[in-house]
Amino acid sequence: MNEKDTTKLPLTSDTTKEHGSGTGSEETITEPGTDQPQVEVKKIVDQPPDGGYGWVCVACCFLVNAHTWGINSSYGIFLAYYLDNNYYPNASSLGFAFVGGLSISQALLISPLATYITRVYGTRTTLLLGVFFETVALIGASFTHQIWQLFLSQGVCFGFGMGFLFVGSVGIVPQWFTTKRSLANGIATAGSGLGGMMYSLATDAMIDNLGVEWAFRILGILACAVNVVCAVLIKDRNKAVGASQLAFDYRLFKRPEFLLILGWGFFSMMGYITLLFSLPNYAVSIRLSAQQGSIIGALLNLGQGLGRPVVGVFSDNAGRINLAGACTFVGGLFCFVIWIFAKSFSVLIFFAIAVGTVSGTFWTTIAPVGAEVVGLKELPSALSILWVFLVVPTTFSEPIALQLRQNAGDVYLHAQIYCGLMYVAAAGCMLFLRAWKIGQIEQLAAERGERSNDISAASADPALTRTVSAASKRSKNKLWKRLFLWKKV
């Protein structure tokens, strides 16, 4: 009598242990091909709590964004003051533009190191490092007397601080939510808009009453106090979701959908930085006062603060990729049909609020869209690469805009056209990403015998975190049809 060899799968305590603060669902795996009783292995699939302590993390991320990106948004007020008062002798307008670009580009450039520190030492260490660099930068900027000192303080050092805080916190909110992910992320990112509004007005008042030096010092003290509290309260779920936390995963470059995300980010930042830093000075160029310019900059940030949660709500309902692409296109459209013709204070107020609701859509939706495309596990690595990729557009966007200014007539006309075209190009990248996603869903639905229009069922499948670009080519709708096919994605 011949006996068949049977292999039993071991049961370990690790396979049934629940991770993190979320709940888990069990997957049963059996071994086929034997006549012996099959051994079941139960594996816990992490399910985020979709709330709970996650709302504390949302509040903390809101405040971190307000005291990093929000404070950085006030640079438009500093820039207008520097240009009008010759604050640093022999400094050019191009040099001042590079300071604003450096503060953002260095925040993104430091992201691989911040990701590595998060993986080795934890999220809290990364956040506290950010607090240290940002505080030193703002206090140090108050003692500068030459433009190169401003480069190092308000440019490079502040960028490092903002980068550590941003990278340490940007992936936290998606880990705590599923169905409310875009709403929660929209609330968290709204901090940069509301913080920018608050600190734009406050910075203008502090410069007028206390001088530039004390404006920097007060900002540094406030940022330090708030960010330290947030760093202590924020909790990540990296172990629960199995986040890879690789600083640079080159395999992502083989995925066309990831390249489309890079294109979306590149062109979005070329337009966004131009708007953020040029709008207060544009107000001055059409003979409005510096105070009115600061109000316009503040209203742009107010629009971001009010619009980002709304974008998050509709993103969860209409599809994250759909809304991200639509809002990006609308941002470019507003530049062409409103900004170019905004020659009065009232029209400029309307434009600042309207474009503010959609101009920062990239920051509102990048984490949820990234999770849709690459999955939560690879999201930190994908974001780390993305931040480095955005160093170039964030560094050179505002210098390009200033160089496009004319000496007479519509001073900012060429810069306005350039800004609008960048948003339209970014929307084009999202259109093709949307087509890829529809093809992926159709292929997965076909493979499982599901209806091709059952988006919600297909989107809940963990297999969506893997690319099926080759299989998508065989889906029932060709690329050109998928570009304009309505699906919730």
Automatic annotation (TrEMBL):
Coiled coil: none
Keyword Transmembrane helix: yes
InterPro entries to which the protein is assigned, alphabetical: MFS, MFS_trans_sf, Proton-linked_MCT
Biased composition (Polar residues): 24-37
Membrane topology, record value: Multi-pass membrane protein
Keywords, in A-Z order: Membrane, Transmembrane, Transmembrane helix
Top-level division of the source organism's lineage: Eukaryota
Stretches that traverse the bilayer: 52-71, 91-114, 126-145, 151-171, 183-202, 214-234, 258-278, 323-342, 348-370, 382-401, 413-433
Chain spans, region Disordered: 1-38
Record's subcellular location: Membrane
Matching CDD domains: MFS_MCT_SLC16 (cd17352)
Classification via PANTHER family: MONOCARBOXYLATE TRANSPORTER, TRANSPORTER MCH2-RELATED
Entry's family note: Belongs to the major facilitator superfamily. Monocarboxylate porter (TC 2.A.1.13) family.
Protein's name in the database: Uncharacterized protein
Native source organism of the sequence: Lepraria finkii
